[in-house]
Amino acid sequence: MAVPMLRASAPPGHLGALFHSNVKKPFHVQRLPCSPTELNPVLQAQTDETRSESRLSLSAGTHLIPHPNKVDKGGEDAFLVSGFNGGVIAVADGVSGWAEQNVDPSLFSKELMAHALSFLEDEEVNYNPRILLKEAHAATSSVGSATVVVAMLERDGILRIANVGDCGLRVVRGGQIIFSTSPQEHYFDCPYQLSSEPVGQTYQDAVVSTVEVIEKDTVVMGSDGLFDNVFDHEIVSTLAEHGDILEAGIG
Q: 42-241, superfamily in CATH?
């Protein structure tokens, strides 16, 4: 039986870990030991000192702490981290309600992120996060659905964001959150979602935002499993307490 729209809940204990970096050096993507099911990239805007002009890029760390009931399969979420242009990050949260239909909720989110990665340099995408969602969604054949957020950093410091549902993003500067995405829900515990079913949302439903970032800003991205369990002031205080990207873990 097809399920056109499913509830998605994040039980207490489903936490994402946070990372940030204050290291000033040319762009690199720092990869922790990871698999396609990990999530919650947290990135630092940094000046590329190899250029004569000031250009920004992202230094990334990722982590996943799945709910205890989902540990065996590695959780239901997926992410991508790319160094293309100034850097691209995305998180897709597989909607857990599909498990009731004997569908693995992680398959859709994993395939969606894999296709998003493959389309980054596509001419039609043109570094537009909404169009990237369009192409990745159209190419995804797995049954299921996912909430998703994508952020693309231009070298001039403009961060372009598109989100569908309740995955989120925060920009932290000087101990304060200066930008926050807002979740989209049909009703409580039923977020907007990209789906294999024709009645679901599309890229046109994505909220598109832009924010100008500067060196040493920290971008925190994650599923609702992070933001439902960790308050914004806790994120800020955790980042303030740790000066290394590998130290700032929550959970």
A: PPM-type phosphatase domain (3.60.40.10)
